[in-house]
Prior knowledge:
By secondary structure, the protein is mainly alpha-helical. The protein contains four helices and no strands. The protein is elongated.
Amino acid sequence: MKSRNSRLEACKRVLRYALPLxxxxxxxxCAGIGDSAVSGAFVDPSKYExxxxxxxxxxxxxxxxxxxxxxxLIDKANTGVAGSVVGEAVYRNDYINARASLKLVNxxxxxxxxxxxxxxxxxxxxxxxxxxxxxx
Length: 136
């Protein structure tokens, strides 16, 4: 009976140390999946095929802004307590979707040989007009 209890205790000890190790390796493998490995599943590859250059340019700017915004939110969440979990759970899928869409827009942009439209120079404020003098 004693040998059975000692074997049971040995199994418990092994499981106590092995399970967290196995779980951490498994989770590290999930974290290693990059944006490029998953991104194809989130976006329709033919979504931007019929867009013209002007539409693609507008979409590019919007997606760049959105992916930058999501990256800032993920970075901000990572500074808090359990922030990496919150960042991954709340923002990561949207971020991957935005990056995948941006990749497809850029590919359509290159296929269409589009050129970015020049940005207008910032408007300079007009000089104030002198007050009109009234005759007395």
